[in-house]
User: Fold these one by one.
Assistant:
Number 1:
Amino acid sequence: MSAFPLYLDYAATTPVDERVVAVMMRYLGRDGVFGNAASIDHAHGAAAAEAVERARGQLAQAVNAGPGDIVWTSGATEADNLALKGAVGAAAGAAHVITVTTEHKAVTDPCRQLERQGARVTWLAPAPDGLIEPGAVVNALREDTAVVSVMLVNNETGVIQDIAAIGRALRDHGCLFHVDAAQALGRLPVDVEALNADLISFSGHKIYGPKGVGALYVRRSARARLVAQIHGGGHEAGLRAGTLATHQVAGMGEAARLARQALIHEAGRIGALSARFLAQVERLPGIHLNGHREQRVPHILNLAFDGVDGEALLADLAWREQGLAVSSGAACSSATRAPSHVLRALGLNDEQAEASVRFSLGRFTTEEDVDAAAARVCDAVRRLRRISPLWADERAA
Amino acid sequence: MSGVPYSAPVWAHFDNPRNIGAWNSPGADVVTGEARTPAGPAVLRLHCRLEAGAVREARFQAYGNVVVIAVGSWLAEWLQGRTPAQARSLTAETVAERLELSAVQRYSALMAVDALNDALARYDEA
């Protein structure tokens, strides 16, 4: 057994696949392709540029885009910032933004910043199952709406929004449509044409690639309606300055290629593991799956446990014998220890939101892992319920 | 396991809480007190069975984070054999000190004292 607890937090981050590590190593040392991809006047730089373009092609192919539509960034957070601030910055005069209360902080925080700078933001609330009606998005449109931002897969609940339908409904309205697909890539087919989106954010470290790299897909027709947020050399066709981290970019390209290759097999395998885990945990009474039961990726299970405090449950799972690495929702909310804004938006009260735990499965999760994890979770919940006065009262009622 | 982000006494009580639960059909010799937090949904419930002017046995129930549970376990253990007068002398400072609580965890020590005083008030009524 490894020194670390069993890892079921793949939605927070994934380990870098060994095949990706092997590719990345080629771009680091003195004997490798360490050149600056912008220094194409010599062989070192030209080789680095070639590696960057190969990776761009790999990511583009994985999402059915043209290589010229991919802008490398430092991660999905930067891609989200570029999409939102870039679209509002390009709009003449006052701009309006539409987004959803359950978005990742990488979208909600830039939106709040834009509000402070004078933009108007409409915050749409999803139904208790986490879904947004395309009609609600259209109804919120205004003449000055510059950008609409809706995520494809929710990072806390795994709920899949019907992005294609929202994109279709927005098509003739002239605003840009941004989609944060950080949790979607490698988990379900992502096709930029089918999604009807103009701007799509991707992350390297959610797909068994390295941290510190991501990308924004920018539809050709949207290019002129986006202004750069980082200046200093005009890299990435003027949309994102800065010397590219060749090894990171090459790693993300390879990770995207592997993700596309493994998608069907992996989705089926993890779907079965997830169902197996859920069936075992749901033998306990008072367990609730947060978010839509069917319209979700199987990798993420967000469960609420009646009568048990989430922090105590997490501590039990993390630090007692046979530990599990799981999360109370978004890693970013865990840092602030506030009840999840996503779960609150689904109508859960503080108590229910605090009693929720996110389990996320991935490429290296085995059947043995989920069986051990389910048994461990059931033990911890039973143990804490024996102590809980709320559970005792509920049983007595 | 290394890296546990709690003090040793807190973790020891959370890992292996003592005196948990309530009596199924408590007699007149059992008094119960409860404390809640205004900010969060935490609940600490304390049950004391008194005999010959002293706590013969104490049990606790807690809903809340690790520290709330640890404080409940510590309190129920500490109470065994104490007289109501001795119990009344317990302060939040003592609880915080014994469990090595940080400043932000101190509200749990107040919960312990509140639950205890609530139980003792019922003993006085009886």
Number 2:
Amino acid sequence: MKIATAFSTEKDTIQATSKVIEHLQAQIGIEPHIIFLHCSEGYDRHLVTQTVGQLSPGVPIHGGTSCLGVMTNLGFHAEDNLGIAALGIHDLEGAYGVAHRDLSIDPRIAALEAAKEALHRARRDGEVPDVVWITAAPGFEEEIILGISDFFGPNIPVFGGSSADNKVAGKWWQFSGNQSYVNSVVVAVLFTSKGVAFSFHNGYDATRHKGIVTRAKGRTIFELSGQPAAEVYSTWIGNKIESLQTENGSILQATTMHPLGRLIGTIRGVPYFQLSHPEKVTQDRALTLFTNISEGDEVFLMHGSRASLIRRAKHVAVSAIHSIEDDDLGIACALVVYCAGCMLAVRDEMKEVVNSLRDGLGIDVPFLGMFTFGEQGCFQRGENRHGNLMISVLLFLK
Amino acid sequence: MINMGILGTEKLREALLDADRARNKENRIRTESELLLAALKILTSQKSNIEIFASILDVMQKLINFEFAFILTKNGDEMFRVVAANCARFNQIVWPLGDLLSLVTQKHPVVLFDVSYVKEWRELPMSVRIDVTSALHVTLQTQAKNAIFVCTHHERGFFNNSHAKRALRFAPLAAQAFKNIHYTSELEITNQRLQEEINFRRKVEEKLRVSHEQMISSAKMATLGTIAGEIAHEINTPLAVIKLRSRHLSKIFAQPTPDLKSGSKFLNAIETTVDQIVKIVSSLKNLSRSADDDPMTVVMLSSVVDGAFLLCNHLLEQNGVKITIESAPEIQIKCQPVQLSQILINLISNACDAVAHSEEKFVQLWFTNSPERIGIHVTDSGSGIDKKTANKIFQPFFTTKPHGSGTGLGLSISRGIAESHGGELIFDPAAKNTTFILFLPKIRDHAPEVG
């Protein structure tokens, strides 16, 4: 198994992309079997894919945009909001396949079809991969997870992140092969030679505030416990939420430390939550989220801190390491999904976040991290969920 | 109440998660260890192999929670067939080697979330695929041949790679159970072959035994043929005596006053002579009948020697051979008397032939007596047998007599009879004159019943 990461913050798309791919090829010494590629929205997506296609024709490419920049074991790469990075894997005993589908018509079926094609491309029809890795446009993640479960059954771990831009302005895109898309799900099936380990966490705790969703639709909560959701939320945080809106009406920054949480389960009496990040307040004082929500759901006001967000990445990495069943196996590399909201909250301390990851994974372990508008992962008890303000670490073992 | 703050709570949560993970790992290892132990006990139990395999499947079922399982092995025709299954419908599977099984035999476990995506599964009969959606395939470590463990479940995607790892850990146990079945099957085949071989050998031995009996009978008849003329003469002489004395009796009883005293004397003489004839005929009759099934009886050694001498006496006299018989020791031997007589007659007859053209003609019977056995030595006036001939003399069909004069079986059969009595018949190369020695074991236990 040969692995390498490479990055660039050069402004010119072709130069930046070329540098990344050529550096990968030089380090690995042979064409990789798969490349994970992420970059900020500032690059020309057509030139990125065109360049990759020219330099690594036929290699499955999986990726998408990442908020502001990217991170690797070499640092946080977001110079002038530009950064592109890749992780390449050459794994003779493994099998990798990537495929995409447009989400416009039926996201659930799109995910199923993409998974089916990715599996076929990996030449492993009918087989269960170690993990399914996804990148999708934000908005349909729950349906995407369901579609993948429809195909593989419920016991397949699903990980990934929603592609992100810098200002939640819809400027995100996804890579599949040597093409890019704006509203697709890209599915990679990973049959690794030595297996994987993973962890999916958040760094938030529940407060005493909680309520039942009494009216909701899709990703909007109209009422909490019979009251307008924005009013209830304002009461909980002790501040008028409307007053915290930014110019475009977003409350994301203001709510990063106070997301809503839904109880998934408990481990030794300690609850663990799926988080939803309040995005906007509507005119009828409803709250929109980055996840679906259902009437009858019980939501808790969660509480986080900058310090927690900085340290969380390392904790998740260590947690993933602890989940390795075979003590004889080491870590070949890692993919890290870090919520863009969390990153924005601790942007000035991202160097510290990278260091904490290096500390947790091991100084020599290559990793690629992306900042996403929604995180998909598998909790310790096997539940695949889409959440916000989450961090996940997927380890490739050797 | 202590306010730990969010970092404190986070650390606590991490610690609890780690503890939970460690406990889960410990539980998993303990469960697997217990199942491993149970499986090992099953393997070392005295159950039948089919039961052992079923028990191993039970253990693996607890570990993997499958619904059905079977084991495939490849035969010479590149087809995999089921050798064990927990459901009879899988026994009909004939599975050609394709991409899937090739991958599995290369030690890669293959987990299928839906078997219908795989051609090899699709080509199996529908009756086999009922209630089979997901499947796990693991190669078994057997030295005998390629063997693959397959387990199935009706739920789509029921198995994942965690199941595969667990199956791999227990595959050696299933392999061992499978080996037991395989070797038992081979053992049964071997036993069957062995039994067939034994039956064949028994038939051959029976044929040999019949053939041997026929040979003994032939040799005996040849001996009888040799001495028949002499026996006739032996009987003719007393008959002549009887005839002569009958005439004397006729003359006595033709007298007006018969001399009854003389008549009585002649009558007694005739009776004695008749007894002599009866004795000769009786010996001849004994020798000519089949004696293989005669029981071993305890007799005086002298009676056997005397009986043989009686039949050979005239042969020796006719050929001008002087016979000297040392007094036989007064001991009992356990034997088949007719068989033993046959040996002595054969040895005496051979000696007679051997010295027929010698100037000095004699045959001597003498005895040696050791604590364990008695030796009957038959020595003739010949000067021995050269080494080359001596080496072959006990071989069947070897004879130094002119063509048509001997069967070449006499000494061979005699040695066989001696050995069947626990004794031996040897040529004594160290003796000055040609000597054969018949050794017979002495009776160990006392109070024998004299036959």
